[in-house]
Amino acid sequence: MKKILMATVAVAAMMSAFPASALERGGSLTFARYDDSTLIDPIYADRNPDIWMVTNLYDTLLRTEADGKTVTSGLASSYAVAEDGLSVSLTLRDGIKFSDGTPIEGKDVVFSLQRAANPDLSPWAGLLASVDSVSAEGNTINIALKNSDPTIVLMLATFNTAIVSADAFAAAEGETDQDKSSSLSIEGFVGSGPFVMKSHQRGSMMQFAANPHYWREGEDGKALPYIDGINFLVIPDDATRILKLQAGEVDAAEFIPFARVSEMQADPKINMELFPSTRIIYSPINTRPERADGSANPLANVKLRQALNFATNKDALVQLVLHGAGKPVTSGLMASTTQLATDNGPLYQYDLDKAKALIAEAGVADGTEITLTTLAGSADDGIILAALQQMWSDIGIKLNVAQVDGPTRGAKNRSGDFDIHTYGWVNDVNDPAQVAGWLGYNPTAKAVGTGWDNAEFNSLYEASNTEMDPAKRAEQYARMQEIYAEAAPLLFMYETPFAVALSQDVKGYVQTPLGNNEFATAWIDR
Amino acid sequence: MSSISYFISRLLQIIPTFLIVMVIIFMLVRALPGDPAIAMADAKATAEQLEQIRQRLGLNEPIWVQFGLFVKNTLTGNLGDSILLKAPVTEVIFERLPASGFLALYSVLFSLLIAGPLAFVAALNRNGWIDITIRSAFQIGLSTPVFYIGLILLTFLAAKMRWFPVGGYGATFWEHMHHLLLPALTVALYTSAIIMRNLRSSVIEVVDAEYVQFARAKGLPEHIILGRHVLRNALISTVTLLGLSIGNLMSGTLVTETVFAVPGVGRLMLDAIFARDYPLIQGLTLTFAVLVSIIFLLTDMIQAMLDPRLRVS
């Protein structure tokens, strides 16, 4: 008996020392992407294939945990926000180095943050609009603010404030800052992230190698990353990307179409991951009293917009478009994974009676015509259109369609030349201010082109942008979400995960809710 | 007219073509709704940011100033920077052109190998069962969508049998041959069907011609009749068709390039259009115009070699 007990203890001890599959180092990962990166630079990254790669090459002062919400230390070991909220001070970690072995110092932080806050250079400068000046003294960084900014700490954990080498930029070839960044992107690449750029053949492949000077430690107490490198292959066709994974030529394939998710789940060699995301699919509704052609716009009536929302069976849409891999939105203003998102259950749960009653109250004539603008060639939009045509015919709405390409849809959104159109969004930052500004705050972009302009919402939004008390800010956000849902400037639809299929050998890879591809903790079980 | 002066006169005709293409593409691209600023920032930028981007890209200049710059830069060989790829247009195009060119020539080679012999066999067995079988098979090739054939080939020959890689382009010449075999075959199944039909009817026409009957009456051996009299004359219209096909293929086979992940100019053009990347669309169109002109010129030269009457007129 004693022997058995001892054996059990020994096995238990071994199991805790060596988890089911022991962590292994080395090897390289081959990853199939839907699109290529162009210029992976903290401030020039403007498309998702660039943005989502930045933190692999450049580290930020602070970081967020995998949940995307909790802020922890990064290149800075600690930070403090002043009592009055008008400055932030940070202490740089000791002994941190760029990939070329040179130390990461205060001057690099000053250079990087000034560059990020410069509206002439960075399309993201607006995120740092509160920054007045940045200075460094030894290992201490001081950021002075023009006004208190509840988002500033999160911004220091966001890709656009990642740290680049001031010396490397000074020495790089090129006239403009962007030219310098381009010439640095391969030749003499110097970064602060877990990987460095090794080679890049535009439109076809890109290679990252481990940065030998990276500071962050893995579970085994040695520096990350675990793998030696990553080969990215650009395979734009969904079916080919999947075939490539099934043939064992790649270890992972991103953006698996939802129609194929269950097939991947059934494959014993494949680990089908559905990472929670901040991606929402919605349709802006034109709320202006007149359409662009001058005719009266029935959608200006909030009751009709609410009726359309009640008449839309979102669960059915989730089944049809996402094959169940998603859920109806629970906040009108943001995905449920976003900070400060309220959750009062599904918005406008399908209710035909309520929809009919609202239509009657609104006095909308039977057979009223509305046009849905969709993306030509999008299978998802085709399904959405067919479903809505059927659902809305139950309340006497005749839905027409106009098919356009992306930029045309964007131009129509900007000029208000639409009734309803499909759209999507993924947060770039961890704070809800970006998405709330885009969807609801009229001065930003006319409340996602809908023309909706609500004085209470606008002033709450403005107040929330300087509100340092988290509880008060949460209240403001709760009220904004309430107002927004009630006014229904959108057809509220659903949120979707990021679908990535990996070989069973690949462990530890994460795509964050913002979409960032995190390879630092990935390893291969051979 | 000698061959050389014929060549030079045809070469000079490229210049007006080029100028007309420049004007048309400049106007057409700007007639599209939406601009690069909106395409770039689509769902994210504020009105102010859009304005900044337009300013930076020079889109706020009057249209004639933009055109003047475009002509001046083009004539000095500067096609500008791609908005989408943030790199010089010429650099980007030259990176992508080899893959499309390789694929185009590879598929034309395949098309000829498939279509040539079969067209002859079909023509010489006109309306027999061999002829009908060959024509029916090609009809299926013509009417099946390219992406479908591509995916079937990929699924069975690449993913299941592992004889070929699933898409991609490779790094060396032999890797290109290996990677591009399936896409080239996919394209060839389509183009060979067109070439086969054309060559078959030309052969039938020529076989019945009086000079062939005369050659036969003279007692010439059959292989000389077919080689010297039939093939040479039947090829004249097929060369034109082949030239058109190569021209088409050089500007990229969009669907094939996408399905097989070939980094060619077809995919680049589509990306450029969706991004409203004016400099890149202009650069690509001008490149295609030059390429197609050169190929047509070569086609004409080959035709003139085959048919001396063309040189005289």
The count of DSSP E runs of length 2 or more, i.e. the number of strands of chain B, is 0
Evaluate the radius of gyration of chain A: 25 Å
Amino-to-carboxy terminus distance of chain A: 37 Å
Q: How would you state the average pLDDT of chain B, rounded?
A: 85
Mean pLDDT of chain A comes to 92
Gyration radius from CA atoms of chain B, angstroms: 24 Å
Kindly report the name of the CATH homologous superfamily of the largest domain in chain B. MetI-like
* Strand elements of chain A, count: 22
- Share of helix of chain B, binned: over 70%
Summarize the structure.
The complex is a heterodimer of chains A (about 525) and B (about 325). Helices cover about 30% and strands about 20% of the residues of chain A.
Describe the 3D structure.
Chain A has 526 residues and is α+β, with helices and mostly antiparallel strands. Chain A has helices at 2-17, 48-51, 54-57, 106-117, 152-155, 166-171, 177-184, 238-246, 261-266, 302-310, 314-322, 352-362, 379-393, 406-415, 433-439, 442-445, 455-464, 470-487, and strands spanning 28-33, 62-64, 71-73, 76-81, 87-92, 131-137, 140-145, 195-201, 205-210, 229-234, 252-253, 270-284, 327-328, 368-375, 397-404, 420-421, 423-425, 490-503, 506-507, 510-511, 517-518, 523-524. In chain A, strand 2 (62-64) and strand 3 form a beta hairpin. Chain B is built from 15 helices and no strands. The relative contact order of chain B is 0.15. Chains A and B meet through helix 8, helix 14 and strand 17 of A and helix 3, helix 4, helix 6, helix 8 and helix 13 of B.
